[in-house]
What we know:
By secondary structure, this protein is mainly beta. It has a single domain, classed as Immunoglobulins (Immunoglobulin-like, Sandwich), CATH 2.60.40. It contains no helices and eight strands. The protein has a four-stranded antiparallel sheet with strand order 1-2-6-5, with no helix packed on it. A four-stranded antiparallel sheet has the order 4-3-7-8, with no helix packed on it. Strand 7 (75-79) and strand 8 (82-85) form a beta hairpin. It is found in: Cytoplasm.
Amino acid sequence: EPDVTIVSGLKDMVVFEGDDVTFRCQVSHENAKDVEWKLQDVALQNNEMNEISVEKERIHTLTLRKVTEQDIGTVTFRVGPHTSTA
């Protein structure tokens, strides 16, 4: 299986409380396995507050819904040994 790398990393975002924010990270290969999103070192799951998806096979997205002050912190995307933070 080819080593999947990060082609385009996360960008820092500034949003207002109550708004949604989307982070995008592009990887080098489709169907990447061993992918993880974290907020403040806590692994995120796909649920009503966090939407985790893949667009166009290689662009992994995380949408945080109706952010609050508690959501301030570092977002991390990891694929295999490679990480990107914002």
